[in-house]
Amino acid sequence: MRAPHRPLRLVLVGAAGLALVAGATVAAEAGSPRHGNALRIEVLSSAPDQVSAGDALVEVSLPKQVRPSDVVIRAGAADVTDAFDLTSDRTLVGLVDDLRVGRTTLRAEVRRGARHGARSASLRVTNFPESGPIFSGPQQQPFVCTTARGRFDGRKILGQPIVDNQDRQGIAVAREDADGDYPQDGRGYPTADAETVGWSANCAAERRIGYVYRSTTDNRFHWLDDPANAPADTATTTTKDGQQVPFVVRWERGTVNRFVYSIAALAPVGDADPERPDDALWNRRLVFSFQGGVAIGHAQGTTSDSAMLPADLLGRGYGVMWSSGTRTSTHYNLQLGGETALMLKERAIETYGVPDYTVAVGGSGGAIQQYVYAQNHPGIIDAAIPQYSYPDMVTQIIHVGDCELLEHYFDATDRANPKWKDPEVRQAIIGLNGTKEPKNLSAGEIAQWNQLYGAMQALGYQVMDRAPGSAAPPLMECKPGWFGLTPLALNPTFTDVQDLDKLAQGTEGVQWTHFADLVNIYGTGSDGYARVPWDNVGVQYGLQALKDGVITPAEFVDLNAKVGSWKEARDMVTEGAPFAGATTPQNFDPWSSRNMNLSPGGDAPAPRRSGDLKAIRAAYASGMQFQGDIDIPIIDLRPYLEDELDMHNTQQSFAVRQRMLNVDRDASNQVIWFADARPQQDYDPTLRAFEVVDEWMANIARNPRKGVSGNKPARAVDTCFTTSGEVIAAGPKVWNGVLDTKAAGECTQRFPIYSSSRRVAGAPYEGGIWKCALQPVSKAVKSGLYGSWRPGRAEIARLEQVFPEGVCDYRKGDVGKPKGHGHWR
């Protein structure tokens, strides 16, 4: 094989403090010291104990006195020396394939009779199937195969999955004719009259390699059947080093870890062998293209042309990696997603060689993956560009799980109180933004929310006051942003996974919750249901609103007495309208209140829910909860969407920063950029971020001892932009007043940042506390927790009735966090 590109070691060590981007090194024989006369052997494509698909890119380093021709390399008993080529810096690099599943010892030694005095080297590698898993535990079944759905420019991206059983497990596979056609429905699945040749449970598909070109006619990619003959309308692109070349891309597709993957990079016209691509136009940088969304597993996921083939990045010479398994609209199991990302990067390195660095980009769930994977798998990415980020997914459930509880109280329980008709009063308790005049709703969205509010009013529920003359109803972020999240995360009877009707064996027994999706992590309780960490024992909703005088003490006490909590999974039932069924008075339930623990009647306090401590500890120990211990260049950017009540609220970038500060009081490797999106978003700073990251990584390569923060280029600073991309303000003080008590910086003043229900209740900015430490009500009163309100004896007695176990003392952190908890490596 042609020798892959030699890695820049200093970039990898300086950027992430790693042994290697994905691999590890072993030098001389076990028990012998590493001297200059020892051979060294390492896996470049992965960690040696995480090899997959039967092959590994391996490098052997030689002492000066050893001639390359004298070296013999074996994988087990097989001589694989011929797979290796000599690189310009005098190492041997080769793709070792046909590795068996399990352990194999790689050994490099000098031929007998050669005069050298050099010690041999050996390294044990562990290979796993291409279908996985490596460390994510038992794989889900049933599992919906979607390879047949994918189409690009009118053709199949992959086609039907490979038959792996005759037991009617998974998706039916039809017999194809000579042209690869078969009777199929609009989604690509075989119709009832198709001849079934078997079923696919693991959804593997044959790897395909092809070419696409960018057309000047419609500015889109199209298939290129002959890479030696680009059409006349082929666009040109200017690479990062200034070359102007035809815009032709080599595009590899297949399945890894049961998910669809894509690897794309510029290719010279006339690339002769797609199996051994000409990488002359690759800029030696890899990009992880992560995507967001919310889903509950049991499916392979769908493809995305824009994420697989991002023209702006491919045109600059970046190699782009994508997988449906790193798209959170497929699943939110970030242990499985991290494993998939490692396997995908291994595949890319085996094809193109070790990159100078790997940078990730992606919004929402795609941003979450960057923070969580960088934490859990150091070295998988060397730089991050998270867009409209959150620190993680799972801790968003903590405060978002309060949304329907609080809105149900305002709309239904205390519907006679006119104060709740004002969205700003609700905002003071929920924390998330609310307004009488939500911006940029589509006509369909306006109709949807007006219909919902109309049904609520007809049934006697309270709705907020509409702004005079406004077509759109007043809304809290809970509705357009998070509506339905709680049933999707917590209700085992509720799912929105597509194509379940195509499964031969059905889905009986599946629990459709986030925690059941990650049951390998959270475990199962004695009732047979996945353990759930959600908890609101002792949470004093609206505490800051009370202290600010927005609500009265009586309203504060009543709210906390009647707000309730969520039932255990085993007790949840099918959702009502508008989630399921007809909108009748009996079935109407936009709050999921039938799955709430509410007051049993009168003034009796509604019970609160105690989270499962084992589940809480698992969230920490598994790394599903981001704690902030990462040291790579990060440009966290977002459009400002608070006026649109978008779920990507701005506090999240700073929650990430605070978690990083909590680790070592240093978050200087993270910069935060906002771009104004009012009245609409015109400027996206993502390409600017790529330019800055490239400067940053080049600085690290030249000056590794200065570390990440010491190598920041001038533009790597906190910044906010206008809608046209002009800098409003930049520098270390622009976000003053967000995480400190300093006077508000210029960006802070320009972009109001809102709160959350748990922060209003006294929790710290960074969130992430599942189960608060408790203190007696009497102690809370004595400490002045309620501000100017000094409860009398009767009021204290009522508070003690509402909070029999005590109220939250957030100064003591999360009582569910494991003691001595460290890293997730």
UniProtKB/TrEMBL annotation:
<protein>
    <recommendedName>
        <fullName>DUF6351 domain-containing protein</fullName>
    </recommendedName>
</protein>
<dbReference type="InterPro" id="IPR029058">
    <property type="entry name" value="AB_hydrolase_fold"/>
</dbReference>
<keyword id="KW-0732">Signal</keyword>
<feature type="domain" description="DUF6351">
    <location>
        <begin position="41"/>
        <end position="817"/>
    </location>
</feature>
<feature type="signal peptide">
    <location>
        <begin position="1"/>
        <end position="27"/>
    </location>
</feature>
<dbReference type="Pfam" id="PF19878">
    <property type="entry name" value="DUF6351"/>
</dbReference>
<dbReference type="InterPro" id="IPR045556">
    <property type="entry name" value="DUF6351"/>
</dbReference>
